[in-house]
Amino acid sequence: MNRSIKTLGICLALAAGLSLSMPAFAATTLRIGTVLAPNDPMGQGLEKFKAEVEKATNGEVLVQVFHNSQLGDTTEMIDQARAGANVGTVTDVARLSSFVPSLAIMSAPFLFDTYEQADKFALSEQYLAWGDELKEKSGLVMLASNWYQGPRHALTQKPVSSPADLKGVRMRTIGAPIWIETIRAMGAEPTPIAWGEVYSALQLGSIDAAEAQPTAIKGAKLYEVIKHVTKTGHIQLVTALVVSADAWDQISPENQKIVRDLAVENGRYASQLTIDLGEQALADVAANGVTISEVDLAPFKEAVSGVYGLLELEAEAAVVNEVLGR
Asked: What pLDDT is recorded for position 26?
């Protein structure tokens, strides 16, 4: 009998040891923040993503969505996630290029002509391989990279018809090399600041200009502090939904697949909203007294053509062209 008790004790100890060494896939909450307003297409897409994930996983994966920079600026949320906090966000992919340099190509100037091209490339084997490197090198997991926020246009206090008109203009942009060098090549002085500070910076004159997509111009009410929107469309803002690897690893493989699939599906939903609402957003901005102008893009394309070589992205550009068959 003593031998039976001893054997039982050993079995229980082994079972306890195994339970400690194996991941426990209990209910997990993903906290996802955005700097944008709840009615922005990205905000609407995240709310739909939340509802569908919770339903499809039977509540085993919960999603909390935080709008309007409640969890901080995008860079701050990325830093929190890398430090192990349960935080995710929708980010321009260029911010992730400090970990995987090739990812910067997604934000390269005048690269994609349509959302469909960006969506195709974001799901290509080549791009997904770069995404897989991200977890190992940064502690971030990219769920999907097809969340389209629209074309970035120049927002200024004076008319713009060529790169020469931007000389000396302090223009807010995203603080990643591809963005900074693109804005510099366009003739302006790139000035990275947090998105939540753009309105007041324009209002106070600490910056002269900004660049943003139509829905964000409207959502942030920038029409109150600018006079001109020039439709340069210099970068198509294709963003990624990323989460902390620590939180992601608490989810079962079966539920991980569900979450990834829904991230792609709702990326397409949010992107279509962006496309559908974009022109109306510009019309609303115009109705508030802002001049919306078309412009000859040829001088701008010529001005930024050297950015690819400067940042050593020619090979990645060739990969994009191969995937898109052009």
From this structure: 63
